[in-house]
Design a protein that fits this description.
Radius of gyration: 21 Å
Shape: globular
Bound molecules: 2-acetamido-2-deoxy-beta-D-glucopyranose
Order of helices and strands: HHHEHHEHHEHHHHEH
Number of helices: 12
Largest sheet: 4 strands, parallel
Strand content: 5-15%
Amino acid sequence: MIDFSSTDMKTFTCVLLILIGSTGGQFLAPGNHGNNVISRTSGNLLRNLMGTQTYKDAIVTSRLDASMPVRRFYRGFREIYSRLLGETGQRSSGNFLQSYVSPSKAFPCQVDGFRSSTPPESVHQLRPGDIDIVAAVGDSLTTATAANSRALWELMAENRGVSWSIGGQGTWRTHLTLPNIIKEFNPQLFGYSLSDSYNVHREAQFNVAENIATTSDMPYNAKKLVSRMRLDSRVNMTHHWKILTYMIGGNDFCSDICHQTNATHWINDLQEKYLLESLRYLRDNMPRTLVNLVPTPLISLSFSMDKVQRPFSCSLTQPIECSCLFGPRYSKDRNHFRTIERKFAKIMERLSFLAELHTKEFTIVYQPFFKDASVFYGGVKEPDMDLMSIDCVHLSQKGHAVSANGLWNNMMEAVGSKSSGFRPLFAEFKCPSREKPYIFTNYNS
Ligand SMILES: *[C@@H]1O[C@H](CO)[C@@H](O)[C@H](O)[C@H]1NC(C)=O
Ligand SMILES: *[C@@H]1O[C@H](CO)[C@@H](O)[C@H](O)[C@H]1NC(C)=O
């Protein structure tokens, strides 16, 4: 634990960490960038400080991995930081956690009969227990940044073990995650993150998400994942069935969109290109994979908190972490950006139906549950701010659990009748049935 001697020191460290952790912060940016290419360096405090020069988009997982000096500094910094902090992901009490499900309650689904006796030949006949490997690409919502944080100086902790789509710490009773659900059907499942870790750590496993990643980072993210899998002796790429959850977009709208001279062009032409490039790459290099393509909840969640009394800390963090929506300079464009963000989700959905992205052994399913994410559960008057992390931008562990519940339900719902929005944890938990034993795809719904 960090032992600070004075409040001033605490405040100073806090602000410093936030600044370093949010290099997309536009209100730190030196004015307008007059071009319309993805301005990966806009508002990058570290770049400004260290004078590192421009770099190719394609070689970074995130802005913070952009150049050698920054990479060294950032990785070194994170190592020291996480040692000082300790494993926040192991905390077992706090409002930010889901409530524990006692052993007297059985797992909600029957699990017998939902692993095929021999592996299926088609991705459209996958039972939950047929999944051997889980993987994920994405941003800080997939790294589970700050999920178990109690204080602002803990914001850079990555609690990957509790991540909704790829965390495998504990069991569904303590941490509802997609892997912890699938483990009930197939205890041999692997690839999930084991505990707090950064991308480069072994504990991260096949979670190659990076903080501050945007859609333009996804082609690189996807390549990293495939090479990591190929190097892993446990993996038989052509034999094992895999689920890859792909969720991206938050930082595009929090940190990049307000730097574009023509946001419509940017979203329609450039972002779609990156999505398509990464999906084609996955189709060609990751056989036997079902991709969950998920829109980001970040913008929807942010708007849902507009009328909610938020903790003071959030008025500090939101304008920094999500300056295009909360920075005073861009507030007039907020609704415009929101409209474009909706369009982005539509682009994702449309791509998921492109015939070229579906083969017998590869498919993409658009899972919409995050689309209408809100701190208000459907039809409820009181917000549940415990879903949010201390910064009101990221999800708490409870928020990750609610998200995992939503993703799982979407996988058990036919395309065309999938639910969206948050529900209280376990209020509804769908199960495969004898008649409909397969994970739903565009071709078996
Ligand atoms: C991978 O699985 C295939 C099909 O089951 C098998 O023929 C092949 O030998 C396996 N490869 C390795 C390296 O184990
Ligand atoms: C922005 O881009 C769109 C699509 O590429 C184009 O139709 C529109 O004319 C552009 N708007 C401006 C102001 O340049």
